[in-house]
Structures are given as structure tokens and as C-alpha cells.
Write a structure and sequence with these properties.
Layout (H helix, E strand, L loop, with lengths): L1 H11 L3 E3 L7 E3 L6 E3 L5 E3 H10 L5 E6 L7 E8 L2 H5 L19 H5 L6 E4 L7 H7 L15 H31 L2 H4 L9 H32 L1
Antiparallel strand pairs: 1-4, 2-3, 5-6, 6-7
Length: 230
């Protein structure tokens, strides 16, 4: 945690704000136990934003971030800087417009990264034409998708892969529990930074495996009963 705070302070010192600090962009050297931040693709400098806001009081910094885990989806957010002099005078630095009238509620991670201290977030919306509305429904699931019975060979292969992954995760989790008794407290605090959380992924695999098999069994029995009734 100390190295993480020191790295963030080093990035913020030249007036650069990192807005997407996540576990998968943190690299740790297992020999030296040195922690490094590997990604600065969504960083924005404060001074250029100050110049833009000085030219136009309604200027905002817009961040567009593609979500890799969701097909065709992006996150759009808008930010404005907070003037330290305004904070010293006790005035409200955040601006709202009559047609919006509210601000985004920040998460604890956003507060740690400087939200409401160096900048604040603004609610954003935009009009979509007919083609854009059609694209939003491209990968949208319907409630009837859960009633589709999967092929037995595909379902069986998925179960085998999931069980094998659960076995590997169980081995990793058992090893992590054993290491907790051996590592000193200062190394234990950063031992799992940037690594896959075996316990969390194991619980997720168990939940997905049980739900998929229950749904598949229920749909299969219903289909069998309906076939006999007809």
C-alpha cells in the first residue's frame, strides 16, 4: 500500500491525474517486491485543462474508455478542474446546469484518486439517432435467451473446462493460505497486488456452474414433459 500511494503521488506531482488505477495494471517484481504502474493511457494533465477552461468557462474534459469485457460498449465521462483558490474561499467549486441539476456520486476509489480534490465529475448525456439506437440493441439479450437449451456436447465440454479451472484455482488458493502463515506482515500486505484472486474467481466459477446446470436441467425436464404431453 505504501508503494502504491508513493507511485500515485509521483504521478500527481507533475500535475498528471491518473483516473483508471486498477489491479491489472499494477506490476510487482517478486524478487525485489517493487510495485510499478504500467498504464497511463487515460491520464490527463492539469495545466492544458486549465488553459482550455480559461478560454471557455464551459469547457470540460471528456474521457472515452472502451470496455474490453463488453462488446460494442464504451464509457463516456466528463470532468472539470477544481480551482484551489475557490476551495480556500469556501465557495462551491462544482457547477451544475438547470437541465441536469445533479452530480455523479463518486466511489471510494475515485475519491482516493483525487476526485473532488483536483477535479469533479459531471453527468453526461447525448442524443442518439435511429442507427445508434439499433446498434445499442445489437448484443442485447432477451428474457427468452435463458430458455434456450444448449447442446449436450457443448454443455458437457463447458462443465469439464470449468471444473478444471476450479481445480487449478483451489490449488492456488490453498498455496496462498499457506503463504499467509510464512510471509511477514509487511510483505503480506502487497503479496497479492496485481495477481488473480483465487478465492473470488473460485466462488464465481462455483456459482456459474451450479446456476447453469440447474437451468439446463430444469429446461430439459420441461421440454421432455411437454414432448410426452403432446
Amino acid at each position: 500500500m505504501y508503494q502504491l500511494c508513493k507511485s500515485v503521488a509521483f504521478v500527481h506531482d507533475p500535475k498528471v491525474l491518473h483516473r483508471e488505477l486498477k489491479l491489472h495494471i499494477l506490476l510487482k517484481d517478486h524478487k525485489t517486491m517493487v510495485l510499478k504502474i504500467a498504464d497511463l493511457s487515460l491520464s490527463h494533465a492539469i495545466r492544458p485543462e486549465m488553459s482550455f477552461e480559461a478560454l471557455n468557462p464551459r469547457a470540460v474534459a471528456v474521457v472515452i474508455d472502451p470496455i474490453q469485457s463488453v462488446k460494442g460498449k464504451v464509457v463516456i465521462d466528463a470532468f472539470r478542474l477544481i480551482n484551489p483558490q475557490t476551495m480556500m474561499l469556501g465557495q462551491e467549486p462544482r457547477q451544475t446546469t438547470p437541465n441536469v441539476g445533479h452530480l455523479n456520486k463518486p466511489s471510494i476509489h475515485a475519491l482516493i484518486h483525487g476526485l473532488h480534490r483536483h477535479y469533479y465529475s459531471i453527468a453526461i448525456n447525448y442524443w442518439k439517432n435511429e442507427l445508434e439506437k439499433m446498434l445499442l440493441n445489437l448484443h442485447k439479450k432477451k428474457w427468452t435467451d435463458g430458455l434456450i437449451l444448449k447442446r449436450f456436447d457443448t454443455h458437457s465440454k463447458t462443465n469439464e473446462q470449468t471444473v478444471q479451472e476450479m481445480l487449478n484455482l483451489a490449488i492456488k488458493y490453498n498455496k496462498a493460505v499457506q503463504e499467509e502463515d510464512e510471509l511477514p506482515p509487511e510483505k503480506l500486505a502487497i503479496a497479492n497486488v496485481g495477481l488473480q484472486g483465487a478465492k473470488k474467481h473460485l466462488e464465481e466459477h462455483v456459482s456459474n456452474l451450479m446456476s447453469s446446470n440447474n437451468v439446463d436441467t430444469t429446461i430439459g425436464w420441461n421440454a421432455l414433459i411437454n414432448s410426452f404431453s403432446h
